[in-house]
Structures are given as C-alpha cells and as structure tokens.
Amino acid sequence: MLRYGTPGEAAGSAASAAAAADDPADAGVSVDLLTDTYRAHYGTLLRLAALLLDDPHSCEDVVQEAFVRVHVARHRLREPDKTLAYLRQTVVNLSRSTLRRRLMALRLMPRPVLDEPAAEEGAHGVLERDALVRVLRDLPRRQREVIVLRYYADLTEVQVADLLGLSVGSVKAYGSRGLEALRARMETS
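That's the SigE family RNA polymerase sigma factor sequence above. Prediction below.
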C-alpha cells in the first residue's frame, strides 16, 4: 500500500537520502564485503579466467586486477549483492583485453624467414654438397654430363640428348648408371 507523507516528511527523507549518499560508509560496497568476496570466490574467478586464457600466470593477474578495479570503483556499485557479478564481468573483460593484446603482438611480430636454414643445416649441407661434387667428379664424363644436365640444369631427356648429340635411350642409360654409381659411392663415403 502506498503511503503519501506530509511535505515535511518528504523533505526529511530526501535529506536523509542525501546524507546517506555523502556518507562513504553507506555508499557502494564496503571493503569488508569485498574482502569476504575475495576469500569466498577467488578460486571460482580464477577457474573462469583459466577457461578464457591459456596460462596460469595471466589468469592470476587478471583476477587480481579485477579485484583491484572493483576496489577502486566500489563506491559506484550501489547493490552489494551484485559484487560477484561485477567481478565476473570484469574478469571476462580483462581476459578479452589480454587475448586482444596477445593477438596484436603476434600480428606485429616480425615473421621468421623460412628460407634461411639453421647454421647446423647450412654446415651439413655444405659438407654433403662437397662430398657429392667429389663423387660426381669421379664418374665417367658422359654419366657426369647427363646427371648434371638432367638433375642440376633441370633439362628433359630430349633436351639433354639434343645438347650432347646422343639418343634419348643413351641419355636414359647414362643417367641410370650414373645415379647408381652416385648412390653407391655416397653410401660408402
């Protein structure tokens, strides 16, 4: 049932409401309530952050930052029973911001050059190439020419035959024998 008071009562209640708004103890969430919420819900908020983020240190940072932000803004929170909901939303927002910063950092990070081999690979490649050149020099002249033109110059069998003045069958035979000799000599060296 609605009750209408006298103008004096209305002025008195407005004055008491204004006094309550000015009194820091009555405005917003108390530090004690925030401390109790911290003790009771830190673990659940940490698990929430863990579902949104990928490493435990970031989760702890996000939850701690959420409590700090709520502590700083506690005078604006008028309904103490919504403190946990406000904390949850802050954890979600801070997690999103953390992920956004990570994605931006990944986008801005210089791309690794994939064409450059590692130093070990380069040294190993030089050793293999030197061994291959030595073995290649030991092959008979025609086999060496066919192998070099076919596999290093990337010519077709027809092009190699025309270049060397041989038949395509001879190119195939020299190539086959040359590859066989290369394999055998590379395995022994």
